[in-house]
Design goal:
This protein is α/β, with parallel strands linked by helices. The chain is built from 14 helices and 21 strands. The chain folds into 3 domains: 10-151 and 273-335, 3-Layer(bba) Sandwich (FAD/NAD(P)-binding domain); 160-270, FAD/NAD(P)-binding domain, CATH 3.50.50; 355-456, Enolase-like, domain 1, CATH 3.30.390.30. Helices cover 33% and strands 24% of the residues. 43% of the residues are buried. The structure holds flavin-adenine dinucleotide and nicotinamide-adenine-dinucleotide (NAD). Nicotinamide-adenine-dinucleotide is lined by residues 155, 182-188, 190, 207-208, 240, 269-272, 317-319, 349-352.
Amino acid sequence: MSTPSGKPDAKAHFDLVVIGGGSGGLAGAFRAAEHGARVALLEPHLLGGTCVNVGCVPKKAMWLAAEAATRLQFAPTLGFPVAPAPLDWAEFIVHRERYIANIHASYRRRLDAAGIAVLPAWARLLDARTVECENGVRLHADRILIATGGRPLRPAIAGAELGGVSDDFFQWRAAPARVAVVGAGYIAVELAGLLQALGSQVELFVRGDRLLKEFDHELTTQLAEDYRQSGVRLHFGHHLTAVEAAGEGVRLRDGDGALGERFDALLFATGRQPNSDRLNLDAAGVAVDAAGHIVVDERHATSVEDLYAVGDCTANAALTPVAIAAARRLMDRLYGGREAVLDQRDIPTVVFSHPPIGQVGLTEAQARALHGDALVHVYRAGFRPMLYALADMPQRSVFKLVCLGDERRVIGIHLMGEAADEILQGFAVALKRGITLDDLRDTVAIHPTSAEEVVLMR
Ligand SMILES: Cc1cc2nc3c(=O)[nH]c(=O)nc-3n(C[C@H](O)[C@H](O)[C@H](O)COP(=O)(O)OP(=O)(O)OC[C@H]3O[C@@H](n4cnc5c(N)ncnc54)[C@H](O)[C@@H]3O)c2cc1C
Ligand SMILES: NC(=O)c1ccc[n+]([C@@H]2O[C@H](COP(=O)([O-])OP(=O)(O)OC[C@H]3O[C@@H](n4cnc5c(N)ncnc54)[C@H](O)[C@@H]3O)[C@@H](O)[C@H]2O)c1
């Protein structure tokens, strides 16, 4: 392909070199190849990146197991003579990993079929047109797409190395008895919820005063209540200053210097940082922001011509469908003659908590700040889903619509409760099409479902 001395041979030139084989990189490589481009993809680890290997997919598998565990728990109340049955993690993980191996195999087949050259190597830029692999192989390209994603961040405190991060969680082969989780974002809330449902005693350490601060306050307050009811211990306003070893486990030291109880395991879910530092971006003159995100415009162009970036290595919403949508639109423009640009507004998102919480559009607080109180109208539904009512379980759903002006245009949809994860997608389409409250009310409900509450709101 090329020589370690750097002398290019005829084959080492590509229309497009993609750095990173995760959600964004694969989507970009496939779409460019569909349009006839000659593409090389560089990925040193497993195909699929964070989402497939240490993110969405294994997380959702664990969440599904946790949902099954919850149902098994209340099955006896409904009349099923089922004894309590803890999850055999090792057995479940065989199923989880088989599912993921199938995804790898499918990517591999599709890459081969598309004629995309895959190099299992770390890459860095030599200049705006040349990529060097760790073994010295050099590739020359007319265009380069950087899709190197991100990695978990540990807090800079003494003993931080005693805690794990989400990547470590996916290596676990059994549930620890007592787990401390630090953080209040997506990952903290998701892992805390599923670990508690799968039998661990979980304590969540939050430095602020609420969970999921980007989500609607009313819903996250109810979620915190549901977590308490399911046995998760929540510590708000906790300032973690150090972690200390305690036998095989750890203890957390807080801002007052007090040392807490012992935990078998500690997970940090304290944010992620972009993988931009090992790319030698300076050599090509690619600008990054203070957090290390590669700076891109709305067309995903970096500060250097013909060099593009998508996904978590940029400051775009760190979600798989966002990376994929950005990469596909970019390749449609570059190689397909289409003019599509990703609309970054009204991106729907779901946290796989127990129960799940999802939103699209503005929260009530954002809408009031933007449009003023007089123009913003809020509609709510609070109810117990049928299954939970039948089983005499306290879990409640809270749905909320944020509407604007006299016509009551729907500018925010917020759902927390059973099936919210599946319900939101369709309503996100409606919101994007600019529907009003009357449009929802004109739609005949599907009964009996949780989803019908969205069209029945008064
Ligand atoms: C625990 C967890 C759960 C998540 N759950 C969800 C979810 O439910 N839904 C959702 O939408 N999103 C979820 N996300 C976010 C989602 O995984 C990311 O937004 C998505 O993977 C970003 O895709 P990407 O292509 O930008 O990066 P990645 O998927 O991270 O891929 C980047 C790839 O680049 C490679 N790479 C890095 N540096 C180099 C280099 N120098 N040379 C060559 N290759 C390199 C890496 O090995 C990696 O494979 C989750 C994330 C985590 C951590
Ligand atoms: N369901 C999904 O779609 C999904 C799931 C997981 C992750 N993701 C994506 O991945 C991103 C990263 O997730 P995340 O949960 O790691 O990050 P996050 O930014 O969502 O949350 C980080 C949390 O850690 C807290 N924190 C940071 N430093 C801390 C410290 N020193 N001590 C205590 N708390 C601290 C923050 O206050 C915040 O609550 C998300 O923003 C999301 O875009 C999506």
